[in-house]
Design brief:
It contains 22 helices and 13 strands. It has about 475 residues and is α/β, with parallel strands linked by helices. It has two domains: about 260 residues, P-loop containing nucleotide triphosphate hydrolases (Rossmann fold); about 210 residues, no CATH class. The strands form five sheets. It has a five-stranded parallel sheet.
Length: about 475
Amino acid sequence: MPSSARPSRPLTLHDLSQSPWADAPLRGRSVRDELRANLLAAIECPDPLFPGIFGYEDTIVPELVNALLARHDFILLGLRGQAKSRLLRQLTRFLDDEIPIVAGSEVNDDPFAPVSKFARDLLEERGPETPIAWLRREDRYVEKLATPDVTIADIIGDLDPIKAARGGHLLSDELTMHYGLLPRSNRGIFAINELPDLAGKIQVGLFNIMQEGDVQIKGYPVRLQLDVILAFTANPEDYTARGRIITPLKDRIGSEIRTHYPPTLDLGMAITEQEAWVARGGIPVRVPEFVQAAIEQIAFEARGDKRVDQRSGVSQRLPISMMEVVVSNAERRAAAQGEAEAVPRIEDLYAALPAVTGKLELEYEGELQGADTIAKGLVRRAVGQVYLDRAGGADTDAIIAWFDQGGALKVSGDQAARAALEGFQVVPGLVPFVHQLGLAAESDVAGTVAGCEFVLEGLTAHRKITKSEELGYMKGMGRPGGATP
């Protein structure tokens, strides 16, 4: 219920019975109906349904909305780093601000329709004076990462001999039960990440709860009429490698929604800009647009590289982590050189290779070449593609001719911007070319240096010039005059 319309919170069953919570549609409304009603209201508003999630507006979001409106349990299938968990956690936006529960209940009992023996006994004993507590929407979401060691006790619950002894109950008495995560999610959302990793017998317990509402614990039948919506995530490529979803459970999941990586570079850049820690305080940071694009393009190049295991995917965390390390390297250089602003350059991309290599699962051919070699190649290809997009067809003959005539230039990645600019000015036409492309303003020293590195690296990627770690940029190899066709 929206906070503006929420009544004052009754603290006893008598007061609750006299409040709007005792009337339709609030009384007895299931969590699925609650999600439906609040989601329909949200659809009528202009605000995005899932703020901060880009690229799913026309694909995943409509499918997820349809599943919720259909009151389905659902599963999100997709490779790593596709915002599956973030989508699930945002579902709480469509729950009421607060709901009443029987105070002390471990399973969030509805005072008007209790499911646990504890709540039924308390209501019978206290009647109208039964105490009422209030549960916030944030506390109605429970998430569990599936691992092979998860037990039925973790998910459903177990019999507690100590509780039985202290209360003088038989083990078969429901009051001796220690509830697991699923019953504690009653009247809320229960999410399981990486569902195929869950042991088959646990999956059986799940679909029995979904279908029949009961489960046997150590031979004792326990009937739990839970009001819960189940949401799962899984990587479809892991089914055979790490486990599988048993057929009866898969059949009971209402909707299967397949997520995807950002389809365009602009969307990927928007995600990285939102997620990467760039605004750090201290030395101001300014990341040139072409550096952002090159970082994002690395992920796109990796997702199409046959040496990278595409079944594992290339997570969106790769450009996010790389952006943070690129900024750190620029920040370190600015601090060492006493500069007032940290502006990343192309050389900083190579300094950030540790943020790339750990996120690539390589095929056999890639393993033979090594992760560092693969990562360096990805950086060069990415810069080459971004250069082609921004300067393809531009006249660089004067720049290339200087190198073909024996010119060589090495500028250290740790040099101050003004010293680096003096080096780049040796190459005829390079600095004016950067300004002509709009990569930096003439008065922007640090941006011009970043632009010069970008142009030279782009020419290297397209084999117009070459690059040596010892000598820096120099003439191309392969035909008289140096340039390669």
